[in-house]
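Deliverable D4.2, example record:
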Amino acid sequence: MNKTSLALLLVLCKVSLLFAQTSLPDNNSGFYMRAGIGYAFPQAGQSYDPIHAFYSGTTNNPVSSNSTFTFSQDKISFSSGLHGSLALGYMFNKNVGVELSADMCVAARKYNYSGTTYFVDSASGIIGNRSVDQKSGMLTILSPSLVMQTAGDKWNLYTRLGFALPLNTDIDISVENAFNTGEIDIYTEKLKSKFTIGYNATAGVSYKVSGNMKVWAEMSLLSLALDADELDYVGLTVNQQNYLPQFAQNHPTVYLYKSSGTYPADNRTFAIPYSNMAFNMGLSWKFHKRTVVNHVTPHKYNRQ
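Output generated by the structure prediction step:
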């Protein structure tokens, strides 16, 4: 290599260095997104349904008596079942951030109550089997939360504390009365609730699988109970024939529930259970921050 080529190579290297782009060090702040699935179990649930006897369980009125009966009941939560979640968060630094998540009950658990009872009184001899199925629709809960984490290089422990804002909390109800006379009545009902703010807490662990991707697993607790607002009759068939118009002529099809009023003119509200304990897992992605660059020109370099 001659002197001219060597000099040219040195000049090119110096020019490349002068125009090099330098990045600011990553301080672990910025936006991230996570998605996951999980299953929720009833936590501190309730068992008694003032409308239909029990949310989940059985009763039996023996033929010889109208006042003595056996029963079995279970605690339930209308948020139990298969869940999916999607969240967007922002870390102020490596340890503290905020997050807004949407948790959806994509396959809610169905609860059933069944019983054999007199529908009028023991003298009438009208006995039948009642079966009540209750299930929440696409329950969605928005949760603004505070995030705290240990920010380890590979393994990371974290916790979230926040509020639970319930959306789409209607309960779909199907009631079937099968009488010993051969008649079968099927009621379709929708139970609506008042808006109430709940609380949630989460503890979990994540593992970095690449520069911006983590897998995570966590346990969460939701504390939420909603007051009943109204019960709507949306369908009624008698022996598979539509009977709702005839029923509506002599019966109300909407029942309102109040926190205060005069009984029995006003129906007293009651709590609908939504609390759960859930196990979840999924992936999270950290968005690449915009690189802050400094362009160094020969003119600026010479001035230095």
